[in-house]
Amino acid sequence: MDYLYEYRDKVRDYECDVQGIVNNANYQHYTEHARHEFLLTTGLSFMELHDQGIDCVVSAIEMRFKVPLRSRDEYAVRLNVKKQGLRYVFLQDIYRLPDETLCLKAKVDVVCLVNGRLGDCDLLAKKLNLLDEG
Hints:
Elements: E1 5-10, H1 24-41, H2 46-51, E2 54-65, E3 74-84, E4 87-97, E5 101-114, E6 117-119, H3 122-127
Antiparallel strand pairs: 1-3, 2-5, 3-4, 4-5, 5-6
């Protein structure tokens, strides 16, 4: 898959469980942080959208765990996004570096609440250069 964006980081000790691997809940933090950083590259932030009455919220997440990350592993979260109706579908993969081992495949559906109501967000679609794909 071709990716639109990549965010790199390193596992911190406190993110691991007693088995010495990253606790499953932390992968959701990794993917969320990458989405926020990606949005900043478009000139927007979730806080700025909120201030304009637009709240982007997760409506569904599907995660497939492949290989665990461990303390001090470096990793890359790579993402793509497409628009389907009112949903922004983020396809996010996490790779361990430098060996490029696939650790996680995630699909995250995000919708927008515009002034408290589910709706389309032209500003976000324009910034992400996305056309409605159905």
